[in-house]
């Protein structure tokens, strides 16, 4: 609704709306025969900016227009009281001059943010040491410094009836698919909720409803990693108040890639990528294989290994399946305790607790030596995965695999892996396939393997890029 308020009406409207806000300020100034009124939250504005760029210029040039006097980049004019209320809530000063039909919205908000620091959750050996912070404008600044192109597009949304959370969608116009951008825009604009807390809310509000443990979006705190996915045709979503950005649509294989893969030789990068994929099977299947060969299929193992296994189980109190379940559950407790406690205490609890519990349960003949080794290897293998979300999903999948193996042996484990493959093939993100079996060599060059950069001439089909040409003549120096 457009209004032409008087100074009395504006003051009455603001005071009625913010009557319970102790930090709301309404200041009146009489300068050069003109009455000026300032409305703002003192906890949101920078008082020095108000003094230097609003009050002093008005005192020196009271007869000039506000636009000529105030030297602030974040300047806007409005005739709507509702729009002015939103400006006040965002940390702006609303300036009113008697006899004027306009309200002047001046951006002098107080900037309180932590400095740009090194990534804490995605540490790599080589590469940039900058991480996103909670300020969305700063995060966009980091991205624009990395991508100096007019093709880099940033679109902002305001989501949440109460929180009014600012959300930024970033993509490369010449690479990203227009249909995916339009579909994401439709889903974001249709969100009707009180507040948004990213990245969890975006995952459940934007992506397809599907009961699955596998993550459908990639979360990163590294600007260089976000840039790499933008160059593959992906979309990056950042939200105010969160240092994590969301990358979508992604495939199953994206969760096994790390920035380190592209900073070392392609042979070394391929080895570590295959190691991560192997750790996926170890995390899901190792406890299940232990139970299956102990209770159902010991004939599949060499005789010396069977003798060692049987001797370790001879004095164990619990059967193999309960051994595995109890030790895996104990590992989850230790892991959660180390995360929730303060860093020095958490590290001590993790080391001491693991050693004490592992030693005591074996000496008390509650479990066998072998299951302690199996549980430790399973935990280490889960930590190799670069994505926290994928690591958590894989650890949880080991429980149903363990139960099926305890009932049907290795046939139950094989059936479980078959069901996982079927489930992955049914999943989609923004209407695109989530999992493509690695049968095509062209697409495995940057999924299962990390082929040389000069050979990656096209983006894989899973990147959903509208422009699949990545490099044209990367080694033109070679005769």
From TrEMBL:
Residue stretches spanning the membrane: 274-296, 341-360, 366-385, 397-420
Pfam families recorded: GerA (PF03323)
Keyword hit for Transmembrane: yes
Coiled-coil regions, chain positions: none
Tagged with keyword NADP: no
InterPro entries, per the entry: Spore_Ger, UPF0353/GerABKA_families
Entry's family note: Belongs to the GerABKA family.
Protein name as catalogued: Spore germination protein
Source species of the chain: Paenibacillus plantarum
């Amino acid at each position: 609704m457009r209004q032409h308020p008087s100074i009395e009406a504006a003051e009455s409207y603001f005071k009625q709306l913010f009557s319970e806000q102790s930090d709301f300020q309404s200041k009146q100034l009489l300068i050069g025969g003109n009455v000026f009124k300032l409305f703002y939250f003192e906890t949101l504005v920078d008082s020095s900016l108000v003094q230097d760029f609003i009050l002093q210029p008005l005192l020196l040039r009271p007869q000039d227009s506000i636009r000529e006097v105030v030297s602030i980049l974040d300047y806007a004019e409005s005739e709507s009281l509702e729009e002015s209320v939103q400006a006040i809530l965002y940390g702006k000063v609303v300036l009113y001059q008697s006899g004027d039909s306009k309200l002047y919205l001046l951006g002098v908000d107080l900037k309180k943010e932590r400095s740009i620091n090194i990534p804490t959750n995605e540490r790599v050996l080589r590469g940039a040491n900058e991480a996103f912070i909670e300020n969305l404008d700063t995060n966009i600044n980091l991205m624009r410094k990395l991508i100096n192109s007019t093709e880099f597009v940033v679109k902002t949304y305001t989501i949440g009836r109460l929180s009014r959370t600012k959300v930024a969608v970033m993509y490369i116009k010449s690479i990203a698919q227009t249909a995916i951008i339009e579909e994401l825009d439709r889903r974001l604009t249709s969100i009707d909720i009180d507040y948004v807390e990213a990245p969890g809310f975006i995952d459940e509000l934007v992506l397809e409803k599907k009961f699955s443990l596998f993550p459908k979006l990639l979360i990163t705190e590294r600007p260089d990693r976000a840039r790499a996915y933008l160059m593959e045709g992906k979309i990056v979503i950042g939200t105010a108040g969160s240092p994590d950005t969301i990358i979508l649509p992604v495939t199953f294989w994206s969760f096994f890639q790390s920035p380190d893969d592209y900073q070392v030789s392609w042979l070394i990068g391929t080895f570590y990528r295959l190691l991560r994929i192997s750790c996926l099977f170890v995390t899901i299947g190792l406890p299940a294989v232990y139970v299956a060969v102990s209770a159902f299929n010991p004939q599949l193992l060499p005789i010396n290994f069977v003798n060692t296994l049987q001797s370790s189980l001879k004095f164990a109190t619990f059967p193999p399946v309960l051994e595995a379940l109890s030790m895996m559950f104990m590992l989850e407790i230790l892991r959660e305790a180390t995360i929730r406690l303060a860093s020095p205490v958490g590290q001590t609890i993790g080391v001491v607790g693991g050693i004490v519990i592992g030693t005591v349960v074996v000496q008390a003949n509650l479990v066998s030596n072998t299951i302690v080794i199996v549980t430790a290897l399973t935990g280490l293998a889960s930590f190799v995965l670069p994505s926290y979300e994928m690591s958590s999903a894989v650890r949880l999948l080991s429980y149903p695999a363990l139960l099926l193996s305890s009932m049907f042996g290795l046939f139950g484990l094989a059936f479980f892996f078959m069901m996982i493959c079927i489930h992955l093939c049914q999943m989609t993100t923004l209407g695109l396939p989530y999992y493509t079996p690695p049968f095509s060599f062209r697409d495995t060059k940057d999924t299962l393997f990390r082929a040389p950069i000069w050979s990656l001439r096209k983006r894989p089909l899973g990147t959903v890029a509208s422009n699949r040409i990545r490099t044209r003549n990367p080694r033109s120096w070679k005769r």
